[in-house]
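#random but structural
TW: two for the price of one
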Amino acid sequence: MEPGTIDTIVAGLLAWITAHSGYPMPDQTPVVALVPHAYVETLVCGEKCAALGVYTDRNVIYLDDALQIETNVCARSVLLHELVHYLQDKNGQFLNLPPSLRPPLREHEAYGIQQIYLKENGRVVTFGPNFYLGAFMGPTC
């Protein structure tokens, strides 16, 4: 990927998210690191799994380096999903709720926004009860 391309994609996705979510545009953006799939698996699952990206609370989004975010809308939606988590953290979303409720609500919101993005880009994807980050990247997307 050419230098600056990822920054342009992140800026565009953040603008889209803020227009569709009510989150304000952040003053800074997270670092996006493209890493081997095994590294993402280790961060998310601790073992082999279908995860393709993860946001850490250190303002870093790790994405599977096989994703073609510059050309593939489904791959780009994985980055969008992680950017939603970034905005959730920056805005203290769900902090007033018990800790046990936060993870499912964070995921529900991120997948909901991701689904809208995909639909607006001509892709209809339904996340079922056993979805996991990136598990939808099959022939339906």
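TW: number two ↓
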Amino acid sequence: MPRVALIQSVAAADPEINLRRALERIREASARGAQVICLQELFRSLYFCQEESADHFTLAEPIPGPTCEALSAAAKESEAVIVGSLFERRAPGVYHNTAVVFDADGSLLGRYRKMHIPDDPLFYEKFYFTPGDLGFRVFETRHGRIAPLVCWDQWYPEAARLASLAGAELLVYPTAIGWHPSEKEEWGERQRDAWRIVQRSHAVANGLYVAAVNRCGHERPIPAGDGVEFWGGSFIAGPLGEVLAEAGDSDEILLADLDFARIEETRQGWPFLRDRRIDAYQDLTRRLVD
């Protein structure tokens, strides 16, 4: 029964400050009994995708690299599994939004490259990130089988399903989602509610645990712009979609104890995986069905 910690933070402009704070909070989460510790999307920097600027490519780093070395040491020290989110420099001109998973002995188990890349106002990720090419991966860790997915992947049931079919017990979504301040009054509550509903539905449809760790705070990397108000609200949901723990809108270490034995119990009662009509889903590989 692992204890999971989600580290929800307001980001600073200085990447070194963000890394130092993350390591401090990892130690704090470990002291509170956390065995799986998850960081928010692109935790080392402000959310730079609010504009298209080649200057931001300097934030990217190789994997393994300096941040991986720091997270590896933190995992070994705390004896906790750590899921981090990095701007990966794979090769000159090829960059990814990548989640890394370290086991409780500090070993790098592998990486997941974000598959679904958005291109919306103030979320110009296609300028920076090459779509992932590793598929939907599940990592066997000391504290459970974990599938990292990243932010925009949250809206795609196919991603959650494939990770579940590969044996995941916990889906972890490092996230950077928030409001355009001009839209918040009209759309804000509905947008946040939709975000929660779709991820809770992944837990229900697949009979497993889901954790979303979002950033918080109002970030304005473009001084003349309105920026994005990241709403926080990190949460952990159980196999019936019930919210086990939920954060507010400021810095927080969110904790919940998971009982993976509940996955089999839930799937026995609601055998959705058993009743899938795998002979009838061929059209899922098409863009649209005419």
